[in-house]
Write a structure and sequence with these properties.
Strand order of the largest sheet: 2-1-6-5-4-3
CATH architecture: Roll
Order of helices and strands: HHEEHEEEE
Largest sheet: 6 strands, mixed
Structural class: alpha+beta
Radius of gyration: 14 Å
CATH class: Alpha Beta
Helix content: 10-25%
Number of domains: 1
Shape: globular
Number of strands: 6
CATH topology: Nuclear Transport Factor 2, Chain: A
Number of helices: 3
Length: about 120
């Protein structure tokens, strides 16, 4: 499996996974950057935000790019199209995620979303 395949596999888990998935795959100093009103979340706030929030049941990554900055640091850039159960439409956003190797495994350090309008 290539680095790109592995990281996009991990990325998909962040869209659909539960708090245990996040605990396992986030760095302790991770930051998540979401549109207002959510804003910037640190590790603990990210885990807390998952309680009571419906997970995405479907997500597709379009225009996928990998920028491998060093052997231990890589950035994913893509357009996400996601849907939650019961939603009539889909959520679309440009996203970027920075992964680093910690304890010999890739971990998410930074994730950012810019929603696409209409």
């Amino acid at each position: 499996m290539t680095v790109e395949e592995r990281l996009f596999e991990l990325e998909k888990g962040f869209w659909s996974g539960d708090a245990d998935y996040y605990r396992e795959h986030l760095t302790q100093d991770a930051r998540m950057v979401f549109p207002a009103p959510v804003g910037v979340l640190e590790h603990a706030a990210t885990l807390q935000s998952l309680h009571g929030t419906p997970r995405w049941i479907e997500v597709h990554f379009r225009d996928r790019q990998l920028v491998q900055l060093t052997p231990d640091v890589a950035t994913l850039i893509y357009r996400a199209e996601a849907r939650r159960e019961g939603d009539a439409g889909s959520y679309q956003a440009y996203c970027s995620s920075v992964y680093v190797v910690r304890d010999r495994a890739w971990r998410l350090a930074v994730h950012q979303q810019t929603p696409l309008s209409g």
